[in-house]
Amino acid sequence: LAETIRVQSPEGTKRICSTKRESASSFVKKVAKEFGFSDNGFTLFKGRNKTDAVNHKSRLSLSAMDIKHGDMLYLIPNTVRSMSPPDNMDTSSPSLSRPTSTSVLGSSSVLQSSQQPAMGEDEIDVCLAKQDGKIDRIRDAQLCRHGPMGRCVHCVPLEPFDEDYLNHLDPPVKHMSFHAYIRKLTGGADKGKFVALENISCKIKAGCEGHPLWPEGICTKCQPSAITLNRQKYRHVDNVMFENYTIADRFLNSWRRTGGQRLGYLYGRYAEHKDISLGIRAEIAAIYEPPQVITRLFFHAVSAIGHFMNYLQIGSVSIDFFFFHINKLMGSYRNQHKLSKAHLIHINNHKLAIALKTATRVRKNAIACSVLGC
After folding, report:
1. Residue 45 in contact with residue 76, Cβ under 8 Å?
2. Which CATH architecture has domain 2-77?
3. DSSP bridge partners of 280
4. Which residue intervals are annotated with compositional bias (Low complexity) in the record (predicted)?
């Protein structure tokens, strides 16, 4: 007789059709196929608290193992996710397959060894970490009542995160630099002893036995803590600079010729920004424009070439031009020339949206900035 066995996993509950005489090994294969696991990528338990495991290679029938119609089994993955495609599945495509050999750098072995540079802190981070970053002030002749070698509250060096000083700069600095923010957290009398810099986890806590697994059930013990979003007070990159104007000009030429928007990846280096204490400047040396269609991108080859030239992939750039209706810009000119539905692109106000990537540095999240009038 046919029977239905329920199997509960961290991803949900599914019903598996079986029979009383079906062996445990055959039933496990059905479960693996249903959940997309390999046969040895998980373990089935009869108890919620991981007790009474089901032998995957057993030839005993389900009835002999006291598994009846409507029973609930609990699937626990052995790893985070051990999915494996079928043996007969061809994951390659003739039109999208990568070439078996490369001539970019002369040999494929050199290319593969240079694709993934060693992860670690950038040189600019190491250099800025050794600096105190304090902002020197000159002696005020009216307020300072001490000699040239003395210091008072009116001329003592300021901390790099002093918000009042940053707001009075011309132009004002809205966000302090990343290293200045770190100094603010780790400064003071406690030296950052009570500052938590660990990664925030929003995952459901496992092991709660008072209710079904998520999403069928949840309680205050296993649900993640509430998160309050605050405005970011710092920025990872304080300035963006192109080595020469032709880099951005060549990138814009494609739009001038075709009118289509473009996307590119920035390659360059990080340097110290002298205008802001402990600031970082991104110096862009090249823009790589991948094929602007759905295709495989040759990031590894381009990144390998950049690695040999001491360039990193520091971000991406895209064209986002402003379109203005002819009525607002040309006024009476429209009436004279009968341009009823024309549109004008204001070239002087075009915008390059630049997103700087900081994956290889201490700064792990991305920062986006806009460069107007490039």
Report:
1. yes
2. Roll (3.10)
3. 272
4. 91-115
